[in-house]
Amino acid sequence: MASAVPRAAKRLRLTNTPGYVCTDCRRAFAASTQPRLQQQPPPQPPPSQHVGQTAKTTHFGFETVAEELKASKVRTVFSSVASSYDTMNDLMSLGIHRLWKDHFVRSLNPGIRPTPPPPRPPPPPPQSQRILDIAGGTGDIAFRLLDHATTTNRDPHTSVLISDINPQMLAEGRKRCLSTPYHATNRVSFLEANAEDLSAIESSSIDLYTVAFGIRNFTHKATALREAYRVLKPGGVFACLEFTPNLANPVLNALYKRWSFGAIPLIGQLVAGDRESYQYLVESIEKFPSQREFAAMVRETGFLVPGDAEGGGWEDLSMGIAAVHKGVKPV
Amino acid sequence: MSLTPMALRSVLRTPTGLRPLLLQAPRALYHSYEHAQPPPYREAESAILSSAFTYVPTHGFTQEALTLGAKDAGYLDISTNLFPKGAFELVKYHLTTQRLGLKDRIQFPDGQMGVGRKVRSLVLERLRANADTGVINRWQEALALMSLAENIPASLRELSALSDEIWFLSGDISVDTSWYTKRASLSAIYAATEVYQTTDKSTDFKDTEQFLDRRLEELRVMGGAVGNTLEWVGFQGGALVNLLRSKGVRI
Ligand SMILES: C[S@@+](CC[C@H](N)C(=O)[O-])C[C@H]1O[C@@H](n2cnc3c(N)ncnc32)[C@H](O)[C@@H]1O
Predict the structure, then answer these.
(1) Total structural domains in chain B?
(2) Is residue A170 part of a domain?
(3) CB within 8 A of B70, min separation 6: which ones?
(4) pTM above 0.80?
(5) What are the transmembrane regions (chain B) (predicted)?
(6) How do residues A237-288 score in pLDDT, each as one tens digit?
(7) Distance, in angstroms, between B81 CA and closest chain A CA?
(8) Which of A133, A206, A328, A329 to mutate to test the interface with B (most CBs of B within 10 A)?
């Protein structure tokens, strides 16, 4: 009961916060709520705006903007909302994004189980993994990864580097870290960086690269993939959790589109007083490649895609509202 | 192509509604000679799985064996993400490699043996591979993994493929309508005998051999009657589950 008070206060504050929106959740929210709000017909993507796609422009949602502008526009979307980020996630997804994230982490199984000591000393040096959580935001994935390594695999050494383009998000992550068992250890560190340029990180130094609900915001996804490939050790794993542009079932998909384009920006306006950010997030999902296309991009980067032989190469979550993609860097 | 008397009998015993199915059944024969199959595993996968397999006798069909194999092959702990099905991938590896390797384990002298004797030898040879690779003591774990809902389709596919391979290697290449029956009966016999093998304490699996002979005799007596066979397969399926349960496998 007592803890409900600060949470409620936080939520109240939230309603006045302009700005942020977590993308992850909008869809889950839409998929799991009964229609209550007035629906609007889905706007058609204006095709005329795609004219003259020179190398210098990119998509910001359905808008075409100069490339240099996109990163800063994305930053604005994710700025000033950092402090309400996690509450907002819960509010928007009704908790579903947590299940996805839990599944994502469990399937990756980070951490190294201690091997029984050999009969004769010296005992082997403790083994650990170095994980890089890209677009890590406030560390929602990072702390789950550490928890799994620690509790499930009894690995007290594996560490995570949380990286994000947005310093406010990282500041929030730092604050959050203080309330975790990891704050007094060297298992969590932070790096402000654009995922397309990880020059601060050495080549072949990372065991596991994760990116959850981040990659669709990147201007050059292929460049980010190449950076992921570079920083991973041979045998290292790339793993991505992201919304999908279309559900496999056409009927659900049509319903879903009405929701995401109609209701969600409206919810954004009502809850956060910021319709535009929400609109961007919905549209950025629409612009993201299909599972098949994205799996092909991962493969073209040089990764071995698990499950390729069975004709898939990704895992759909909740009827394909989101999907997990993985790739292993060959030795 | 004309129907053999036996096949004809089995068609006539089938309910009228199902007969067209039997008669039109395409012979989707699938075995290692007929098609140039793509290699079943990519290089990295073979490297990891073959090293991991050497840990099965000591570590079982487990994620741990997979991880140890990955490290031996120069990969990392985390690289086992290459195998979405985890430990079951090790089971599949054994099933696939031993099915494909069967033709090299056994050669028949020309014209000496009938199809029936050859089938018997092939089944025994395939079972012997479970012992030779040292996984027989771990095979109940494998059966438990195979019985998990998400793994059943792949396991049955492998079993059918093995059955086809055995019929093919035995020289039974006749295209007739009893093909589905034969596949089903041999699959059932093989599955039951393999379960029996996991509990066999006799020397050289003598008891397993006798068990197999009794099953083959039943099949011979019953002929290729579709109805009977399916009933029988159902019965064997039940027996298999009971046997596994009695061994403490939770299915
Ligand atoms: C929806 S949040 C996801 C946060 C976290 N991974 C989670 O699942 O809760 C998306 C994050 O991507 C970050 N981001 C956007 N573009 C980026 C880029 N080019 N490089 C690195 N991070 C970026 C944003 O700052 C934001 O924190």
Answers:
(1) 3
(2) yes
(3) A235, B48, B51, B52, B76, B77, B79, B80
(4) no
(5) none
(6) 999 999 888 888 888 888 877 777 777 777 777 766 777 777 777 788 888 9
(7) 6
(8) A328
Mean pLDDT to the nearest integer, A28-49: 42
3-state DSSP assignment of residue A117: coil
Q: Are residues B69 and B17 in the same domain?
A: no
In angstroms, the Cα distances linking B207 to A111, B201, B211 are: 45, 8, 6
- Closest-CA distance, A37 to chain B, in angstroms, reads 39
Chain B partners within 8 Å of A127 (Cβ): 77
Looking at the fold, whether B65 and B88 belong to one and the same domain comes out as: yes
Decide if B47 contacts B214 (C-beta within 8 A).
Answer: no
Please check whether residue B49 lies inside any domain of the structure.
yes
Statement to judge: residues B75 and B89 lie in one domain: yes
CB atoms within 10 A of CB A41: 9
pLDDT tens digits, B16-65: 444 444 443 334 444 444 445 667 889 999 999 999 999 999 999 999 99
- In A, minimum Cα distance to B68 occurs at A115
- The whole domain housing A228 covers 57-114+127-328
Specify which residues A304 forms β-bridges with: A328
Shortest CB distance from B78 goes to which of A236, A304, A309?
Answer: A236
Letter for the amino acid at A54? T
